[in-house]
Write the structure tokens for this entry.
Amino acid sequence: MCGIVGYTGPREAYPIIIKGLKRLEYRGYDSTGVALQNSSGLKVYKKKGKVAELEDYIVGKDLHSNIGIGHTRWATHGEPSDRNAHPHQSSSGKLAMIHNGIIENYSQLKKELTNKGYNFTSDTDTEVLLNFIEEIKKNNQCDLEEAVRIALKRVTGAYVILLLDEDNPDTIIAARKGSPLVIGIGKGEHFLGSDASPMLEYTKEVVYINDYELAIVKPDELILKNLGNEKITPYVQKLDIELAAIEKGGYEHFMLKEIFEQPQTIYDCLRGRLDAAEGTITMSGIQQYAEQIVSASRIVMIACGTSWHAGLVAEYIFEELCRINVEVEYASEFRYRNPVINKGDVIIAISQSGETADTLVAIEKAKEQGAIILGVVNVVGSSIARISHAGAYTHAGPEIGVASTKAFTAQLAVLTMIALKIGYIKGTISEERYQNLLNELQEIPEKAAWTLKHSDSIKALAEKYKDARDFLYLGRGYNFPVALEGALKLKEISYIHAEGYPAAEMKHGPIALVDEELPVVFVATKDTYHEKVVSNMQEIKARKGKVISVITEGDEVSRELSNDVMIIPEADEILAPMLSVIPLQLLAYYIGVAKGCDVDKPRNLAKSVTVE
Ligand code: AGP
């Protein structure tokens, strides 16, 4: 997510802003910038890259100012670049703005402004909103505050904006809907931030701004209003948390924060794309290649690690809904083989970072041989996103924990939407099943929240099993890849050996491992394969193995057979992996913590494997 900082008061603004941006680096970003205001006008300094690079870039420039705004950008519209970095300046040059969020109807607004002669220097929705505000100010002959109010009633999406105006050199105008904004109250000065970390060292008195509120912030005055121009009394709170805690949103680790973010990140992934009421899935990147995908004789999923597991789930989904042959390849194997790639083959590259070397090289190779490359990537403007012909971003926000959690469920959400869209176009899915799945998919964020709410028993499970030497994870069908993912999470977070396996494969060897010491985790949610999985559970019980099961709420048969259970709500088997993986993420996390492991930065691992 983007980072926002603002200051107005008697001190030099630049040092406060730049230090505040560094406090927000943990949020993940790809470019950064500041806007400062002094007697010689508005100055904007911005560039792609890290805050430290911005500092080098603006050495020697005019940085004197008692008011300023700063931004770290996590790209959503327009790839990371100097021109797409914030702050943006309006056409007149008299306004500067930073923004965190997504303006969903920006293309409509851009069309209107272009018809009125506006030109744009960037690909961002932010610049469109800024010029829309300026156009209203000019047209309605109103002040900036009123223009902001009118504009925000017209936009859909999420925003926090901070605005500087050359004509009001000591005032910052701020507004929010759906993205966080905190205002710190100082003596004759005010601080603004996406969270309290940029202001903690100056003040612990803060006002959390609510949706649809607008703040007019001067050094010695904070005026709060709603979009109906009615004054609101600011509710000042005293902060009693330390800096380190804020960066993790109050969670002990980024990994736990990201696990609990999943209801929101799955929602963000669906937002603006899935419209169950209309029965539509809007994915422009996929739409432009829909014909080629529909007529493809095969789809090859290429990825590594957790992303490869997402590809395995997608194999079952695409074959079920689109009746297209799907192969799932480890990128590292694919790139060194001499794979057969036919023109018209569709490759789906799945990657959180978009920088995994094996995946990048594998798809470059496939592209040279005429395949169509679709990227399912989290980091906007990353290498894999850039060399793909098209694709869809997962919008999971920056994933800081090395173990991938929210990116995995977001990948599944995107891949499911693609398969539904293609299956519907191809006619390989009935209208009724299509509509049912859309309705159910829309409920997944809530079901993920339900799963997390019912997860407090997992901490106790972790205590009980943390000293086991080995684990087996078993599942069938859609839950087989979930078993693999659960095993990977445990391995990489707690360093305990864990193996994922198709449950039916046990009798071909691995069942020899089973004894009273071996915990066996079944992903046994109610689906087509459930009865068979129950028999597998009985086989393990008969050999005194410890059975820990992820089950569907109300499934008493599996509960009876299990030593311990983790519960998810009822869900269509195609969608269940987005839920059944959550208890396994938590089990790995709590066992890792119980063993004193560095769960955010496990030994030997990197967040993005950009080398072979
Ligand atoms: C998963 O928890 C690991 N961090 C790792 O397996 C990861 O999924 C893999 O390296 C692929 O990364 P990518 O999704 O960024 O391409």
About this structure: The chain has a mean pLDDT of 94. The CA atoms of residues 531 and 570 lie 16 Å apart. Residues 304-307, 351-353, 356, 359, 402-404, 492, 608-609 surround 2-deoxy-2-amino glucitol-6-phosphate (CB under 6 Å).
